Amino acid sequence: MTYRTDQATDLDTTRVGDTTTVSGWVSRRRDHGGVAFVDLRDATGLVQVVADPEEIQIVDELRMEYCIKVTGVVQERPEGTVNHEMLTGEIEIHANEVVILSPSKPLPFMLDDRSEIEERIRLRYRYLDLRRPHMAANLQARSRLTGAIRRTLDELGFLEVETPTLIRSTPEGARDMLVPSRLRQGNFYALPQSPQLFKQLLMIGGVERYFQIARCYRDEDFRSDRQLEFTQLDLEGSFWTQEDVLVTVEAVLKAAAREIRDVDLTDPFPRLTWQEAMDRFGSDKPDIRFGMEIVVLDDLFEDTEFGVFSGALDGGGTIRGINVGSRELSRAQADGLVDRAKELGAKGLVWIQVSEDGSLRSPVAKFLSDDEQSGLISRLEASLGDVLLIAADRWKTVSQVLGGLRLDLGRPNTQDELAFLWVTGFPMFEEEDDGTRTFSHHPFTSPVSIDEMVSDPDRAISQAYDAVLNGVELGSGSIRIHDPAVQRQVFEVLGIDEETAERRFGWFLEALEYGTPPHGGFAFGIDRLAMVLQGEDSIRDVIPFPKTQTGVDPMTEAPAEVDETQLKELGIQIRAEVIAAREEAGE
Amino acid sequence: MTYRTDQATDLDTTRVGDTTTVSGWVSRRRDHGGVAFVDLRDATGLVQVVADPEEIQIVDELRMEYCIKVTGVVQERPEGTVNHEMLTGEIEIHANEVVILSPSKPLPFMLDDRSEIEERIRLRYRYLDLRRPHMAANLQARSRLTGAIRRTLDELGFLEVETPTLIRSTPEGARDMLVPSRLRQGNFYALPQSPQLFKQLLMIGGVERYFQIARCYRDEDFRSDRQLEFTQLDLEGSFWTQEDVLVTVEAVLKAAAREIRDVDLTDPFPRLTWQEAMDRFGSDKPDIRFGMEIVVLDDLFEDTEFGVFSGALDGGGTIRGINVGSRELSRAQADGLVDRAKELGAKGLVWIQVSEDGSLRSPVAKFLSDDEQSGLISRLEASLGDVLLIAADRWKTVSQVLGGLRLDLGRPNTQDELAFLWVTGFPMFEEEDDGTRTFSHHPFTSPVSIDEMVSDPDRAISQAYDAVLNGVELGSGSIRIHDPAVQRQVFEVLGIDEETAERRFGWFLEALEYGTPPHGGFAFGIDRLAMVLQGEDSIRDVIPFPKTQTGVDPMTEAPAEVDETQLKELGIQIRAEVIAAREEAGE
Fold it and tell me: How near does any CA of chain B get to the CA of A34, in Å?
């Protein structure tokens, strides 16, 4: 039994006259002049099969997506029927035998790229969705992407090491997913949010250059671009400075862009400190494919009579603006911008348009002096028709508002251009909503200065850095703490008392005591990188079998109920209130 | 700040006179003639540092495994002190500066390969254990092994596709590990025992050639070579016959052996049917590095007067023997063999030694006729001193007993030779201890003949096959069922009624309805392959961070108790009896 002698796209005019056997799916079928033309699709592409239903009766049974085997002779297509858009468009197979390997029920949706199908239906029939050309291309690209990453790191002398996924719960900013233990009832493993501590242990273990393409887990409330499980490239090196990390990650990202986009990126990538990124782009993950940079206007308005501006300055705030270019701005559109600014946290927004006659059209124009008006035009390099947006508030709010409006109004809607950059010098700590201090990156990140961290923690800068692509945070890394005394100090600044630190991290603090090398590393999301490189809007389109935003697989209906006996073996039970709620819902 | 200009083994006599900076660990330190000799170890190996403590006082502080940075000049070693067993044995670094990067506490055990350390202690300090040369070599080998596997499959046009690890519970012969869902309280994900159904879905999705190095999970009661989580190479192809699978896996295993052992294996590998393997070696995973094959003796004893033999034959059993070669056999040793046979399930064991004078020494010799005695010698090709072991019982018991004794007495105690083979033609079903019928491989395996499967299921042969290396089952595979009607028939033979099949597998049976290609595949354990190739006795020595046999990580003490609030969010609680037992134990 042979299913095939050739793949579809192996066939071309050099093979004319050869007998061939191909297997694949019926992608299209037309009848013309008593003869059937079947586009047979396999993993490589399409080839046209010509069959006479009078000779081969089974051809009349063929329907869309039937899986078939065809034996026949390769022939040149008759003049005028050559299809130049098809790789095999110069030939066709004249069938001698057609075998139906598997029939197909009528399809729930068409398998071309043009159909817009509800995502839940696509996921319910993911195995059909994956036959669509752009989804098949996404799977292929992802495989090539991880291949290129591995080759690059292999050449750089990295070891791929598998770290455990049934670990002890560690606090990394999101909820752990738990796995009850059967042999130690009442105890739980956690699924890793990242291999962070294990890769640091590998450094202590003398590995020096580690990487892993690792499955990680975060039980966050779903946002559009999050999944319960995701994949990250995780890497770490010993005797490394920040420069070593950045150069290595650049080599990996260059290889990725070359493999998937066939472009050679210029290195080193642009670098911005976190402060610069916030000041110029109002974001710690700026999209630098376009300008509209934020301009400081404080000095221009230091004597202003316009109360909103003077009030902001008096309150220790700042006045900043962006020029969003020449565009139509109806009153309704202007109101829309103000509403959006409020959504982003502003109390209001000043909009100004440079009219045809050079005067400023704005509800606040009358409050601004001539000097202020001309200063605005020159500072924001405004031309006729340009729209200027100005916010006055605390620095954080102004940055957030102008950064958000900048993206709304300027962001390209394709991913054709690739703009990578580094953001460095992140603050060591940040404030939680409840006012408590927490780590910005994770609690194993090294401060730039230990003294500064202790004396003025809220202004302390860490040795952490992010890689950003087209406004998407690809990943982050840092130089780690390798001195157990410093690690204890960081816990202290975070308000973790000694006893708690010992209970939760004692084993790790002990490991640091045995000649830990200085080390640092990085991790970035494969899903997000693949998404941008493939020009997709959703990570779900580059994940073979994703979950919905509520963590459900519509195909298998996971998660599901399980037998009570299984739970009993694990020493757990479902809480009474959950069962009651389920019964009430009539399940 | 530069930690190093060179790795230890970059340095040789061509570098004499160069100033170099190296970083690593103090592997050994001797003092001789007022000068300190420090073996500095990094990931590449060792280099000797010479320092004068009078000039560089810090040298006196150096202890084992301190992490240090040394700057100095490369010099040839004085005549008579060259060390030919060391890659850098012709040179040494004369230190100008030594910096302690991290001190180390005194070690809990010596880091050489000679020390025998209790495994629990090794795992408690795994980060130190990994610094030992053979453990470092195991990590490196494993990375090279998966690299070679990936390169091979990449060249063969396979896509690496990541399948989900939070799935719906499926029955594959072992217990699932469960993950409670927070967004759907009272529901659970399962961790996959293998990517089986998802890889079949990829075939339905048109991928045609898939592989993945996949983390899998089995909550089995621990045996010496099992872990809760393990890694397998998982592959699948469409339009494939058994031959296609075997050729592909052979290519992968050949690449693995070449990479790790630098040997070129002859292909195709030997193939035995399951029946042959059981008959000749008494095992479905025979170690064929040595003979001692099982010989059928039924016809020799068809008229025997020895009751044990005639009784076995009359009861439908069989008489078989092995020649375990010339060896000392005291009465106590012989009794030991009989005891071992009983452990293996025999009621007794006949032992015979060919004495110096050619007569047979055996408690049963007197019951055997001259013809039977000479027949035994000729059938078992016995020479002077040879020990013959004979079992008479049901076929299954005889195979088990002689197969077990054969391994005890013949198995080489190194893994120097690599003997791969295929076992094919496994039975479709087998009997569970309680007499019910279950699948031998998994319920998605195709029978050789559907008619036979329905008419005589207990004798039906499947299209399943195992790869065996030196008596270790590396993995198994099969041609799958691609016809939903056949899949339903298999469920029926397994006693799974239609409603249950629909409830548990309805989504998969539906997927099979959409033009499923014929397909088959394979999976083998990376841990076991790495173990044999590295000549280790335990898979734990090739897993970076394994668990103990009770599923515990002695380093982090996972699994651990978690906060009640975390459990509440997940809608679960620990059962009262578990809490009571814990309190009783005084925890």
Answer: 26
Over range A173-186, report the average pLDDT. 90
Nearest CA of chain A to the CA of B484: how many Å? 10
CB contacts, 8 Å: B22 with chain A: none
Q: Answer whether B571 sits within 8 Å of A575, measured CB to CB.
A: yes
In a domain, B107, yes or no: no
Contacts of B483 in chain A (CB under 8 A): 102
Buried b (16+ CB within 10 A) or exposed e, A279-306: bbbbbbbbbbbbebbbbebeebbeebeb
Name the residue among B26, B198, B229 with its Cβ closest to that of A166.
Answer: B229
What is the tens place of the pLDDT at every residue in A334-368?
999 999 999 999 999 999 999 988 899 999 999 99
Mean pLDDT of B522-537: 96
Does the residue B475 lie in any domain?
Answer: yes
Tens digit of pLDDT for each residue in B58-81?
999 999 999 999 999 999 999 899
Q: Please tell me whether residues A222 and A122 are part of one structural domain.
A: yes
CA distances, B426 to each of A314, B277, B439, B442 (Å): 85, 10, 11, 12
pLDDT at residue A225 tops 80:
no
Strand ranges (DSSP E) for B1-66? Answer: 19-32, 35-42, 45-51
Does B477 share its domain with B453? Answer: no
Of B67, B163, B556, the CB nearest to A168: B556
Give the nearest chain B residue to A41 (CA atoms): B206
- Report the SS3 class of residue A577: helix
Strand partners, B102: B67
* Inter-chain Cβ pairs, chain A and chain B, closer than 8 A: 349
3-state secondary structure of A8: helix
Q: Give the tens place of pLDDT for each residue, B538-586.
A: 999 999 999 998 899 999 999 999 988 899 999 999 999 999 998 888 7
In a domain, B542, yes or no: yes
Do A478 and A578 belong to one domain?
yes
Residues A133 and A258 grouped into a single domain? yes
Candidates B43, B127, B164; nearest CB to A511: B127
Is the model's pLDDT at B347 over the cut of 60?
yes
Chain A partners of B132 at a C-beta cutoff of 8 Å? none
- Where are the alpha helices (H) located in A494-548, listed in sequence order? 498-511, 526-533
Residue B47 belongs to what domain range? 8-102
Same domain, A256 and A324: no
pTM of the model: 0.95
Rg (CA), chain A: 30
Q: Do B78 and B20 sit in the same domain of this protein?
A: yes
* Total domains present in chain A: 3
- Which candidate in B509, B556, B577, B582 is best for mutational testing of the A interface (most A CBs within 10 A)? B556
- State the best of A68, A514, A547, A575 to mutate against chain B, taking most chain B CBs within 10 Å: A514
With CB atoms and an 8 Å threshold, state whether A544 touches B161. Answer: yes
Single residue among B60, B82, B102 that ends a domain in this structure? B102
ipTM above 0.90, yes or no: yes
Amino acid at site B330: S
User: How far is it, in rounded angstroms, from Cα A277 to Cα A279?
Assistant: 6
The verdict on residue B2 lying in a domain is no
Judge if A249 and A385 occupy the same domain: no
